[in-house]
Amino acid sequence: MNCDMTLLAALTLPGTARSVAHARSFLRDTLVPAYLAPGDELLDDMVLVVDEFAGNGIRHTASGDGGKFTVALWKGHGVLRAEVTDDGADGARPTLQPEPDDETGRGLHIVAALAMRWGHRANGARTTVWADFPG
Fold first, then answer.
1. Is the omega angle on the peptide bond into residue 33 within 30 degrees of 0, that is, cis?
2. What CA–CA distance (Å, rounded) separates 89 from 76?
3. Which of 73, 80, 106, 132 is the most exposed place for a label (fewest CB within 10 A)?
4. How far does the chain reach from its first CA to its final CA, in angstroms?
5. How far apart are CA 17 and CA 120, in angstroms?
6. Are 68 and 87 in contact (CB under 8 A)?
7. What residues contact residue 84 under an 8 Å CB cut-off, 6+ apart?
8. What is the mean pLDDT of residues 44-57?
9. Cα angle, residue 122 at apex, residues 117 and 124 outer, rounded to 5°
10. Which CATH class is domain 6-134?
């Protein structure tokens, strides 16, 4: 991660489906009104990306098996970053599915279309998935 970024806020939630709504609210509550206006398209894009990252963490990692996940929001020069750290999937990492027209597996294609850039990094056994947006 870029050292020139400042942590705005972080929240750890249980790895349950209902926690995804709390992650979306946390993002809105943190970014509005200090960084983005209500109804801002960028805010909607960031909420969708956090929803995808959190949902994937619950469905595909140990977070959804009694674990937890953490949402963190960062601010750097001209960039807002949203991160979700999950409890890991035995070393498996997020990848784009080859066919974005399939019924499942399209979420990271949407992330790639909305974010300036996105990626992931190992965090011990855990995985952090991040996306950068203009800010």
1. yes
2. 29
3. 106
4. 16
5. 22
6. yes
7. 23, 50, 53, 54, 57, 69, 70, 71, 72, 128, 129, 130
8. 97
9. 155
10. alpha beta
Q: What's the DSSP call for residue 62?
A: G
For the chain, domain boundaries: 6-134
E-state strands within the chain: 6-14, 68-76, 79-86, 117-123, 126-134
pLDDT at 77: 95
In DSSP terms, 14 is beta-bridged to: 68
Residue whose C-alpha is closest to residue 82's, from 59, 111, 61: 111
Q: What tens digit of pLDDT does each residue of 56-106 get? A: 999 999 999 999 999 999 999 999 999 999 999 988 888 776 665 555 567
